Amino acid sequence: MFNKDVVAPGKMRRKIVNPRIILLDCPLEYKKGENQTNAELLREEDWSLLLKLEEEYIEELCMQILKFKPDLVVTEKGLSDLACHYLSKHGVSAIRRLRKTDNNRIAKACGAVIVNRPDELQESDVGTGAGLFEVKKIGDEYFAFIVDCKEPKACTVLLRGASKDLLNEVERNLQDAMSVARNIIKNPKLVPGGGATEMTVSAALKQKSSSIEGIEKWPYEAAAIAFESIPRTLAQNCGVNVIRTMTALQGKHANGENAWIGIDGNTGVIADMKERKIWDAYNVKAQTFKTAIEAACMLLRIDDIVSGIKKKQAPGAGPSKPKIDTEGDADGEQILPD
Q1: For the sheet containing 132-138, what is the strand order?
Q2: Segments of the chain scoring below 70 in pLDDT
Q3: What distance in Å separates the CA atoms of residue 24 and residue 64, rounded to the nearest whole number?
Q4: What is the three-class DSSP state of 38?
Q5: What one-character DSSP code corresponds to residue 215?
Q6: Name one Pfam family in it (predicted).
Q7: 189 burial class (0-12, 13-18, 19+ CB within 10 angstroms)?
Q8: The Cα angle at residue 187 between residues 182 and 188, in degrees rounded to 5
């Protein structure tokens, strides 16, 4: 589906069954000069000759297309009135100035090949996989549909909403859902949601820190506390008592047991995520952990902050003069030992 109508609605068909589709990436109009072009005509007959050459050029382009007997011609560039006349005269519908992305999607849907020059057209370039071409009016605009394709490699999801804000929200939710499905197909691994994975990792880090002595145990304890922020946030969003819920959840995950226990985001109760069928994608969860730890390491590597903000001067004060060191200043400096 794309937001376009045929060039001449009164002369061209808006509904074609089993259409033969030709996709072009070139203009069907007389070639114009790249820069400002001036033509000086000395005789009146020269003007008629110029118009005749233009008509013959457009007619030749259209005849190269029409010999393949198409039902629909789609081009990404312009389409002159003369070309529109020749195409409509032979019962061919035409669509012009289509976006490159939409043209690629049509090619994947109907099996056509996008051609750069009409004289290079072949029978194999004609798309015959579409079952129906139809133009429909939705609201105040016209939309063209190419449906019932035999082996489509592209599709369109049409979203409709009462307002623009609602439509943007639905589009964002659909994008998230499709991304989740893609992640599961690429890496079919799941982990329990509801903060169960974070609490399991936190309990494992606490258990590891108890076996380490000295300051080396502090990073383990700090990371364990940080992982608990996810279930704590879930509990806050549910409106339950955060301290009691976290204490009960920590008791369930003590000694690395009950790895499936988490927080139900709808009710706020502690439940088995396997029974509630609450899951997270493994690769998303792993990437989240890696990013969080890398960000913490980057902050810890910062030993000083250089500020580029100038100090504010008193109102009315002129620009400060550069200070020149004198011999007395040099003698007064302390020499640090090697």
Answers
A1: 15-17, 132-138, 141-147
A2: 33-34, 256, 306-338
A3: 12
A4: coil
A5: G
A6: Cpn60_TCP1
A7: exposed
A8: 95
pLDDT score, position 338: 47
Calculate ∠ Cα 124-126-132, nearest 5°. 135
Residue 140: predicted pLDDT:
87
Where would I find the H helices in 187-264?
196-209, 218-227, 229-238, 242-252
Going 210 to 214 to 216 to 221, the CA torsion angle's sign is positive
Return phi, psi of residue 217, to 5°: -80, -15
pLDDT score for 146: 93
Rounded to the nearest 5 degrees, what angle is found at the Cα of 18, between the Cα atoms of 16 and 23?
80
Q: Please tell me whether residue 62 adopts helix, strand or coil conformation.
A: helix
Q: What is the DSSP letter of 311?
A: P
pLDDT in tens, 35-46: 777 778 788 888
Beta bridge partners of 115: 24
**Roughly what angle, to the nearest 10 degrees, separates helices 196-209 and 242-252?**
70
The confidence score (pLDDT) of residue 143 equals: 93
Q: Which two tokens stand for residue 213?
A: 């002595």
| Domains defined along the chain, listed by start | 15-30+50-147 (3.50.7.10), 159-188 (no CATH), 191-301 (1.10.560.10)
Q: What are phi and psi of 262, to 5 degrees?
A: -150, -165
From edge to edge, which strands make up the β-sheet containing 93-95?
93-95, 72-75, 21-24, 114-115
Instruction: Give me the residue label for tokens 């592209």.
Output: 154
State the CB neighbour count (10 A cutoff) for residue 128.
Answer: 14
